[in-house]
Every structure is written in structure tokens, then in C-alpha cells.
Amino acid sequence: MIGAAFRSLIYLMTLSLLGLCASTVNAAPSALLIDNNFDQLEQFQMSYFVDKSGDMPISQVQNQRFTDSSNSINLGAEAKTTWAKIALKNTSDTPITLYLHNSYAYYNRAIELNEVVNGQVTRTRLLDMDIKDTQESMYQGTAVFDITLAPQQVTTLYLKNLAYIYQVFSLELYSQDASKRVLINQNNDITLIVGMILALIIYNFFLFLSSRLKEHLFYACYLVSGGFWIALSYGLFASFFDVFGSITLKWNIALGTMPICLLIFMINIFETRTKYPTEHKALLTVIAILATNSIYGLFDIIKALEYASTLAFIVLSISLCVTISMFVRKHPLALLFLIGHSLFITFSVLAVLFYQGRIGFSYISSHGVGIGILLESLVLSLIIANRIRALETLKASQAELQLLASTDPLTKLLNRRSFALEANQLLRQDKQIRHPLSLAILDIDFFKNINDTYGHGLGDRVIVRVADVLRQQCRHQDIVARYGGEEFVILMPNTSIEKAHVLAERIRKVLENATIHVDQQQLVNFTLSVGIAEVDPTTADLQAAIEQADKALYKAKNNGRNQSQLFVG
């Protein structure tokens, strides 16, 4: 008996609980109270009904069971025709005009607004995004409907939203002044995001033009497609250019080019073609799938965009796996790319779940792809900066190696080989304009005795001193080199043999008075012998001029050293 009574009690409690839950879910929200002080309602309760038939008349819709919700709705791809129901009561004794905003109007195919009083439709407005004559309620991508509430009367709004793919809309109520303020300031955030991306696009295009490095071009293309899709998807094109409807639907094909450009960028910076064949094949496979879907979108854009959600998960998964593989392989750019791509993946997954109606309506979820693109773009710009620094370091190293290869390590003057290259280039130029050129060979007198007496360390100091004096005394256009052990050479453009003799004498006299400290008490002096020859302007034969200057040098040596001699043919 007690058991039967207990079971009956449980049964009754269960029925009561179910009845309570049902009444809570299905009960229509009470009417929103509007008075003369009304300014705005951006968050309120309403209800919605999904018309699976797609063509239910308003008379039949009024008798359907609506589901309570907030004023912002995302219901996925299975709710292409959805009715929103809002009850408004004017509690004042005068008429009140307010404005209903649908800020996602550009995202829909058509919107129909019915005003119902006491079960009778008093006013109906149709907004079709492809019919110009119906678009008087569109303002910068937002549908704005004026509604006049009679005193002490309840008006129920039935708003029909026809979506192309995913059902997303957000409704707000404003006074006239508040409506104007909101419309003026709308899309400031998207404008800022697109502006930042545009700056990165311009910067990377200029980098590509100056460096011809493909990663700048691929990254700029990724930013172009991403920025275009953000401007399209979040209403910037609708706001600035009144572009919406089936035209913008077709332009959504740009969504496929964005990941393609990103994957090509990955192939380039990670050099997968030559270094990581497995990862390279995976990225190429995904690119082929995306390209196929984009081509298919030219024929059936709606179906292609429905496939895009599934493809997004595939692309994100494979690109993440490749990035992790690069990180495990200790690729120097993998960590930054992993951080940026993880941010993009996180926000993109939120966006996909949002459009599918699996998570609630919020700014982050509704703008997930745009936020993800911006954050990834900023992090990828660090990769670009890292690459630029690495290339500059490499160029500096190459320049240093080239300098080492072309200069004498002790004196930092040109070596014999580099002197010949630069001198011959200069001779080819001067041969055309017939400027006089002179060449001088300088040799340190008794240098072997200096090395033998004081050691090679002091001998090196003598050579360095000669090199320093040559740098100080020679002109900027003169080509100066260490030609051999203790031998130096100067090629003087636009210089007659007499002027070359003046320069040689000045150098010789400076070094004649120079001293090198052996220790605190002992000093060493040294001198130079110089041979000078003029280069024949008709032949510009460098070797012949060197041989002539060498003969003049031997003459200076034989005449007692510490002097300059001219070659006389």
C-alpha cells in the first residue's frame, strides 16, 4: 500500500514538473512596456518560430507555438525561414514612434514585418534584398522599421527572416534620436579591423616589390582575401556601398581563397616542397579540396558554403598538424606560426559553431572569424619581421664574407685580386672618356731587416701604419690595395703622372717621419720607395702600367731608396 502510494506521488510530481517546464518554455514573453521616456532596448526577451514549410501565411503563424529567446538569434542552416515575435505595449496616453533595427539584415535574403493589433494585421512591409523598390527600410546594411504605438495599446510584431544559409539576426528597439546615434556609429569596430589589415596589405606589397620575396606576396594575398571577407561578412560593404542580397552571397566565394593563400604561405615559409615532402603533400591536398569547392561554388554557392563548415574543420586540423610537425622539427618560425594559427583556429571554431547554432549569440562568437584573422595576421606579421631580420643578418654575413674575400685581413685594404677587378672596371670606363690615369707601386725599404731584427709583430705594425697613411692621404676615388707582403699599389683616376708624383712624395715624407715604438725606450723608423707610371689611355692596359711602375720602383731602390721615381719610356 505504502509502495503504491509512493509511486503515485512520484508520478504526480513528475507530471507537475513536466507541466511546469513546458509552460516555462512555451509561455510567450510578456509585452515590453514603452512610455514617453523610452530611449532604447538592446537586450530583451522575445520568441521565435521556425517555419519549415517556408511559406506559412501570417494568419497561420499567429497560431503557432513560439519558443522564448533573447533578441539575438543564431539557429544554423535548418531554420532558413524564422519568425520573431515581439509584443509592445504603449503605457502612455500619447502615440509613441520607435524604430526596430535588424543589424544583420544584409545577411538575409528577405525580411517581412507584420504589425498585429487584436489579432488583425494593421501594417505589412516587405524588404527583399534583390528588389530595389522594397529597400526603403535599408540603411547602411541595417533594416530600420518605424513603428507607431497607439496609446494604451498592445502591438505585436511578427518579423519574418528568410536566410540564404545560416539563420542569424539581432533585433533592437530605439527612439528616433537613439536610432540615429546607433546608425552613425555602427561598424566602427569592423572598419578598424579592415583598416589595420589594409595597412598590413600595403606594407607587404611594398616589401614584395622591394625584395621580390614570395612570402610577402602570399601573405598580402591572404590579407586581401581575409580583409575582403570580413568587410563582406560583417556588413562593411553593405554599410558603405549598399551591397547586399544575392550579389554578396556570390562574393562569399572569397572565403575559399583565404585558406588557400594561407596554406601557400605556409608552404613557402616552411619550405615544405624541398624539406618536408609529407607535410607538403598534405597541404597540397587541402588546397586542391578548397579549390574544388570554390569552383563548385560558381555553380551552387549555397551548397558550397554549407560544405565550407566541414571543410573549415578539415583545413584547420591539417594546418594545425603541419604546424605542430614543424614545431617538433624545431623549425625557427614554427612557434610564432603555431601561436598565431592557434588563435585563428580557436576563434574560427567558435564562429563555425555559432553559425551552426550550436553555441549562443555573443560578439566574440558572431565575429570569431574576423577576430581570428586579425590576431593571426598580427602574429604572422611578426614572422615576416623575423624573416626580414634573418635575411638582413644573412645579407650582412654575406657582405662580411665578401669583404673578407676582397680585402687584406691585416690592413683592411683591397687585396691583389680585388684591386685587379676594380682597376679594370675603372679603366674600361675611363677608356671611353680618355681621362689620364696614373699608377704607383710603394715598397717598404729593408722590410726583411725589420722582421728579422724586431720580429713579425712589429713588422705587421709597420704595414698597418703604411696602410693608415695611405687611407689618410689618398683621395676617395683612388683605388688602394696591399699588393704583396710589404708592397702597396695606388691607381689614381683623372691624374697625370706629375700629380701622382706629388701625392707619392707627400705619402713618402709622412712615413719618413713616422716612428714605431718597440718599447718605452726604443723607436723604429722606416722609409718607402715608390715607382710611378701613367696608364696608356688608348689601351688601358693595367698589367703594362704595373710593369712600368715596377721598373720605376727598381730604379728608386737602385738609386738609394726612400724616393719616388717616374717611368720614362
UniProtKB/TrEMBL annotation:
<dbReference type="Pfam" id="PF07695">
    <property type="entry name" value="7TMR-DISM_7TM"/>
</dbReference>
<protein>
    <recommendedName>
        <fullName>diguanylate cyclase</fullName>
        <ecNumber>2.7.7.65</ecNumber>
    </recommendedName>
</protein>
<keyword id="KW-1133">Transmembrane helix</keyword>
<feature type="transmembrane region" description="Helical">
    <location>
        <begin position="335"/>
        <end position="355"/>
    </location>
</feature>
<dbReference type="GO" id="GO:0052621">
    <property type="term" value="F:diguanylate cyclase activity"/>
</dbReference>
<keyword id="KW-0472">Membrane</keyword>
<feature type="transmembrane region" description="Helical">
    <location>
        <begin position="308"/>
        <end position="328"/>
    </location>
</feature>
<dbReference type="InterPro" id="IPR011622">
    <property type="entry name" value="7TMR_DISM_rcpt_extracell_dom2"/>
</dbReference>
<feature type="transmembrane region" description="Helical">
    <location>
        <begin position="361"/>
        <end position="385"/>
    </location>
</feature>
<feature type="transmembrane region" description="Helical">
    <location>
        <begin position="217"/>
        <end position="237"/>
    </location>
</feature>
<feature type="transmembrane region" description="Helical">
    <location>
        <begin position="249"/>
        <end position="270"/>
    </location>
</feature>
<dbReference type="InterPro" id="IPR029787">
    <property type="entry name" value="Nucleotide_cyclase"/>
</dbReference>
<feature type="signal peptide">
    <location>
        <begin position="1"/>
        <end position="27"/>
    </location>
</feature>
<keyword id="KW-0812">Transmembrane</keyword>
<dbReference type="InterPro" id="IPR000160">
    <property type="entry name" value="GGDEF_dom"/>
</dbReference>
<dbReference type="InterPro" id="IPR050469">
    <property type="entry name" value="Diguanylate_Cyclase"/>
</dbReference>
<feature type="domain" description="GGDEF">
    <location>
        <begin position="435"/>
        <end position="569"/>
    </location>
</feature>
<feature type="transmembrane region" description="Helical">
    <location>
        <begin position="190"/>
        <end position="210"/>
    </location>
</feature>
<dbReference type="Pfam" id="PF00990">
    <property type="entry name" value="GGDEF"/>
</dbReference>
<feature type="transmembrane region" description="Helical">
    <location>
        <begin position="282"/>
        <end position="302"/>
    </location>
</feature>
<dbReference type="InterPro" id="IPR011623">
    <property type="entry name" value="7TMR_DISM_rcpt_extracell_dom1"/>
</dbReference>
<keyword id="KW-0732">Signal</keyword>
<dbReference type="InterPro" id="IPR043128">
    <property type="entry name" value="Rev_trsase/Diguanyl_cyclase"/>
</dbReference>
<dbReference type="Pfam" id="PF07696">
    <property type="entry name" value="7TMR-DISMED2"/>
</dbReference>
